[in-house]
Amino acid sequence: MKLLRPLSPERLALYVAMALVLLFNLPFWQRLWEIVSPLDGHGVKMLALALALTTTFFYWVLLLFVWPRVGKPLIGLLLLTTAAVSYFMNQYGVLIDQDMVRNALQTDGAEVRDLLTVKMALTVLLLGVLPCWLLWKLPVEYRPGWRRLGRRLAHLGIATLALAAIAAVGYQDFASLFRNHRELRMALAPLNYLQASTSYLRKVTAKPQPLQQIGLDAKQTAAAHAKPRVLVLVVGETARADHFALNGYPRPTTPELAARTDIVNYPNAWSCGTETAVSVPCMFSAKAREQFDTDRARHEENLLDVLKRAGLTVLWVDNNSGCKEVCNRVEKQMRYDEQHAKYCRDGECFDEILLDGLPERLAALKGDAVIVLHQKGSHGPAYYKRYPPAFERFKPVCRTSELQQCAREDIINAFDNTIAYTDFFLAQTIRLLEKQANIDSSLIYLSDHGESLGENGMYLHATPYLVAPDAQKHIPMVAWFSPGWREHGGPALNCLKTQAGQRYSQDNLFHSVLGMMGVSTALYQRELDMFAGCRQAS
Question: CA 170, CA 248: separation in Å to the nearest integer?
Fold first, then answer.
C-alpha cells in the first residue's frame, strides 16, 4: 500500500503556488497589512484580491514548468533559493532589487561567513530541503501525449481567465497600490529575486563597452608649494550620522575627534546610495546622484582617473570588499585578507591595517597625492568583530549575526563600539599626518551609507533608495586641514565651520577634491565645491 497517492502535475503546481504565497512571503503580507490597516471593507477586499492574484499568477507560471523530468528539479531549485531569500527578508527586513543582487554577488568571503547562521540553516532545511525531499518522494501522474497537453492548456486557460477577472475587479486599486508602494514588488518572492537577477545578469553579460574617458583637459594649476600636498580620503562603511556624538548623539562615541578644535564636522551629509556597490562608484563619479547609473559607471572614468591624469600620485588601500571597480586604473593595495599578527584575526583585519606602512609611503612622496583608505568600519551584521577588545566600551553587545535574537540595546552597543573605533582610527590617522614634516596634509572622512538597527523591524542596509529610511542615507562626514595646508591657500577654519551646517552630499566630493588639489578641468563645478567659498589666496 502506497503512503502517498499520485498527484496530477496541475495539482502539484497549485500546492506549490499556495506554499510560495503563504509560507515564503511573510514580509510581503506584513507590508500590505500595514498599508491597508486599519481594516475596513476596502482593506479586506485588497487582502483577498492580493491573495487571489498572487496565488493564481504563481499557479499560471508553474503550469509552464511541471513536465516530466524537468518539473521536480526546477521546483526543488525554486524552493531552495526562495527559502534562503525569504530568510534574509524576514531576518533583516531587506527588499530585493537589482542593486541588492549586485551587492550580494560582489560581497567577500568574510561577509558571507557572517551571514551564514544556524537560523539560516534551519530555515533552508525546513522551507527548502524538507519540501524538496517530499517533492522527490511524491509520485506525480502524467497523462499520456495529447491528453496531457490538452489538460494543461485547459488549466492555463482557466488560470488566465481568473487573472483577467481579478484584474477587472481590482485594477484601479492595484494600480494605485503598486504606484504608491513600489516596495511591494521587491518584497514578493520569488518574483523579486528572479526579476532582479535577470536584469542584473542581462547588464553584466552585455557586449563590453569601451571605457569613456573624462577630464582629458585635467591639469594642476595651483601655485607650486614648498611641500607636497597629501589628501587622505577615508571612505567609511555603514556608519550613520545620528550615532556620532559630534552630531548630538548623547553617547560619547567620538571623544577623540570632539577633543580637537581643528575638525570640521558636517552634520547634514547624505549618501548617494544605500549599499557600497552603488555609493562608492557614485561618490567618485562626475555625475550627481540623479544622473548616476551604476552599470554605466563601470565603463566610465572617475575622480581617481582625473587626478592621475593631472599628474597626482593616487593610491587606494582597502580593508573592505574591494573598490567596486573605482580603483581599476590606479595603484591599489588590498589588505583585508592579510595575516598581520597585530591587526588581523579570524580571516579579517581591523582598520588600523590601513595605516601600516603609510608613514614610509608619505616620507617617500615627491609630489601631491591622494590616498584613499577604504574601511571595514561598522559593517554588519557582526558588529562585534569590527573593533579590538579594548574598544568594547558599551556593554553588553550582540555576539551573533542573527540580530533578531538580541536585545536592540545590545545591537546598538556593538554598533556604537564600531563608531568609537572609527573615531580612534580617524584621530590616529590625523596624528600620523601631523608627524610628517615633509608634507602639508588634509583628511576627509565620509561613510558610504548608513545602517538600520532594528527600527520598524529593519536591519542592515541596501533598502532601495526611494523607500530607504534616513538611517541608511544620513551619513557622518568630517574634514581636517593641517596648519601648513591652511596657511598656503587652504580654506579658513572659521569659515568652514560657519558653513558646515548646510546640506551636503556625496555629489560634492568630486568637485571638492578637484578644488582642494588645484586641478583645473571643465568638469569642475565651483558651486559643488564645499571648500571653495572659504579658500584663501595663496
Answer: 48
Contacts of 403 (CB under 8 A, 6+ apart): 91, 92, 380, 381, 411, 454, 459
Note whether 429 and 355 are within 8 A (CB). Answer: yes
Closest CA to 428 of 445, 451, 440, 408: 445
Of 234, 232, 231, 230, whose CA–CA distance to 445 is shortest? 234
Instruction: Find the angle CA(340)-CA(322)-CA(444) to the nearest 5 degrees.
Output: 90
Residue 261 in contact with residue 474, Cβ under 8 Å? no
Residue 403 · residue 461 · CB < 8 Å: no
CB distance 480 to 430 below 8 Å: yes
Q: What totals of helices (H) and strands (E) does the chain contain, helices first?
A: 19, 16
CA end-to-end span of the chain:
95
pLDDT at 1: 37
Taking only the tens place, the pLDDT of each residue in 19-39 is 999 999 999 999 899 888 888
What is the helix (H) or strand (E) element at residue 369, kind and residue range?
strand 369-374
- Predicted TM-score of the model (pTM): 0.84
**Tens digits of per-residue pLDDT, 434-462?**
999 999 999 999 999 999 999 988 899 98
HEC string of 300-347 equals ECCHHHHHHHCCCEEEEEECCCCCCCCCCCCEEEECCCCCCCCCEECC
Helix (H, G, I), strand (E, B) or coil at 25: coil
Tell me if 500 sits within 8 A of 266, measured CB to CB.
yes
Q: Which residue has the cell 616620507?
A: 363
- Report CA 480 to chain centroid distance, whole Å: 27
Cβ–Cβ under 8 Å, residues 265 and 504: no
Using alpha carbons, list the distances in angstroms from residue 444 to 87, 318, 508, 512. Answer: 38, 16, 12, 10
Peptide bond into 190 cis (omega under 30): yes
The label of the residue with cell 563608531 reads 419
Angle between helices 191-204 and 98-105 (to 10 degrees): 70
In this predicted model, what pLDDT tens digit does every residue of 34-77 receive, in sequence order? 888 888 888 898 899 999 999 999 999 999 999 888 999 999 99
For residue 126, the 8-state DSSP code is I
CB 378 within 8 A of CB 460: no
